[in-house]
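Let us walk through a complete example step by step. Step one is to write down the protein sequence. Step two is to encode the small molecule, zinc ion, as a SMILES string so that its atoms and bonds are unambiguous. Step three, shown after the inputs, is the structure prediction itself.
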Amino acid sequence: MKAAVFHGPQDVRFEEIDAPALADGDVLLRVKACGICGSDLHTYKHGMFQQLGNPIEQGRVLGHEFSGEVIATGGPIPGVNLGDRVTSIGVGANAEYLRIPKERVAMLLPIGDKISYAEAATTEPLATSLHAANLANAQDNEIHLVVGAGIIGLGILQCIKASSNAQVIVADLSEKRLAKAAELGADRLIDVRSTPLVEALDGGSNFSEETLLDANIGTIDTVYDCAGMSKHFQGSSVLEQALAVVKENGKIVVVAVYEQSPNLDYNQIVRKGIQLMGSWAWSMEEFKIAADLIRKGEIDRQPLISHEFSLEQASEAYETQLRAETAIKVMFTP
Ligand SMILES: [Zn+2]
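Step three: the predicted structure of the complex.
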């Protein structure tokens, strides 16, 4: 079968590999869409998270944001029929076919027939956004700031808007991504290329005894850090800036994966009473809710799909997803 195989940093190749064999109770999907995830990109750039790929003889097959059609089963399986349109959890979906092992068949989720396979393949990143949004639990009169308008940040915006009347500010350095945030209902945009966050939000970039005594320091109830700091990043990290702009007793939810550790003023966390939370992945319940939100049309994921490629274009697809200025979600549609 066709596959995009990861051999090492910056080296993803289109190859023919053996199709998976089915054991009793397994299900075989024909992959119809598979997105390139931020974690796949960290693997592509630096070799991080290689364990998230499915090992094969020559390398690893990445890809865990997928949807597909059931084309074979290992014997009859109650509730599973050939032709079912589904999404699920698993890895190795940058390929033509994917085996769902028996123990995960219960997590095959129907996607209905109103949405595209590509939209359904964004269930996993939406679950990641939902988990982050759930950690902060936005209330109607709050102001939330999403830094980084990639698919995770935009998904957080969608989750907050679907569940509350909180105001959402979105900051990014790509015009295209900011325009997308506006389209999805952001109340205010900050282009951090022209205005640094702390200036735009009057958070006070210089942390001093005087600013500490000012009860109004910071205006934001919750900051979501969906940008982090890459190894090529200049200047202070989003997390450092978040500490300045979040209000007293506010929350910071870190979803981004840092490729290097930022310098933090820990006393700022203490003196402002900040709740600093890491957000990693999602619960099974959140995955199912994300799938429902998409299937029922309560959250529209179509605007987030920026590019589609065949597996033959594997390396072009990864290079495209790297270009944050233009790409939001790059999909393989084998
Ligand atoms: Zn992912």
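Step four is interpretation. Residues 37, 39, 64-65, 124-125 surround zinc ion (CB under 6 Å).
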